[in-house]
Structures are given as C-alpha cells and as structure tokens.
Design goal:
single chain; 185 residues; mainly alpha; two-stranded antiparallel ribbon; transmembrane; AWPM-19; transmembrane helix
Length: 185
C-alpha cells in the first residue's frame, strides 16, 4: 500500500483498475468500530448456531432458565417433604426467580419468531418448549403461593407454630419411634 504526500493521508493505493488506463484507484480508509450495526465483534462468531440475531441470547437465557428451574423444582420437592413455612418461602422465592428467567427466554423466543429467517427444527422445538414452560411455571408459582391466601392450601405464610416447634412447647418425638417416658434419647 502506497501512501501519498509523505505521511498518512487517509488514502490507500488499491493498484491499477481493470480498465487498464493506468490510473490509480483510491479508497478512503475508515477506522472500524468495535460495535457495528450487527452487534459487538466478539459475538459475531455465533452465526454458526443458525437462526437470527436473537438466537444466541435466546439459547443463553433458555439454559439459565433451565438450570434455575431445576433448582426451583428441588426446593419444591423439599417443601413437599418438610411441609413447613420456611421451606414454602424457599420454594416460593426460587420459583419467582425461575419464572422471571423463563419469561425472559419466552420474550426472546417470541422476538426470534418475529424476526423470522431460517431456523432449524431443533430451535423451533426449543422455542415451543419455552413458550409452554412459561405458562406451566406460572401455574407452579401460583400453586406455591396459594398458601399466602389460605392455610387450607398448605402450611401458609402465617403459621404461628414455627417458634414453638409445632407441638406447643413439648419436645418433638422422631417419626417412626415411640417415646419412652423419662428417656431423652
């Protein structure tokens, strides 16, 4: 590349043009921005997943929603086993976080469908699964929080026996054993 006027002038020599008349083609050199209209340069290599611009973000939030959703179901299983107010609060809190991430993935799935373009069958199935999962997790969230309104649906958030140990000051007996009078073991 030959520069003109002794220093950097913003032009670069592209060689002779195809007409053969001997004139030099000049092109103005512009700096390339780190972020272009297509997104950051470090994320441009994600086109191998197919889909469109929302695909990579959809996949990231889908995986995060899946992991947090599984942990939410573990907390819900622990609540069914323990059936106490504190386990209900833990299951309810993780279900809210899980549903929020699933709603983000749902929005990105809708955005991806709206943008259009070619998407493989696996991506279409994942989009459908996230859309269905959003509403089933909402149902799970509402059923967990039903104890907020009535103790008929579970231990409730207003239980008063938590500080007393559930038996009104009496030492609890382990399940499956018989309590022997005078024995502390």
């Amino acid at each position: 590349m030959a520069t003109f006027s002794g220093g950097f002038s913003g032009f670069e020599d592209k060689g002779r043009n195809s007409s053969g008349d001997g004139t030099l083609q000049r092109q103005i050199r512009r700096p390339r921005p780190a972020v272009s209209a297509r997104g950051p340069t470090r994320l441009r290599g994600t086109r191998g997943f197919g889909g469109n611009g929302a695909t990579m973000f959809f996949l990231i939030f889908s995986m995060m929603a899946a992991v947090v959703g599984v942990t939410s179901k573990f907390a819900g299983g622990n609540h069914i086993r323990a059936w106490r107010n504190d386990s209900l609060a833990a299951a309810g809190a993780t279900s809210i976080v899980s549903w929020a991430l699933t709603v983000l993935a749902f929005g990105l799935a809708c955005k991806e469908i709206n943008i259009g373009g070619w998407r493989g069958w696996r991506l279409k199935i994942l989009e459908a699964f996230i859309i269905i999962l959003t509403f089933t997790e909402l149902l799970y969230l509402l059923l967990l929080h039903a104890g907020l309104y009535s103790t008929r649906y579970g231990p409730g958030y207003r239980g008063t026996d938590y500080a007393l140990g559930g038996a009104g000051g009496v030492d609890p007996v382990h399940k499956g054993t018989t309590g022997v009078a005078g024995s502390r073991i």
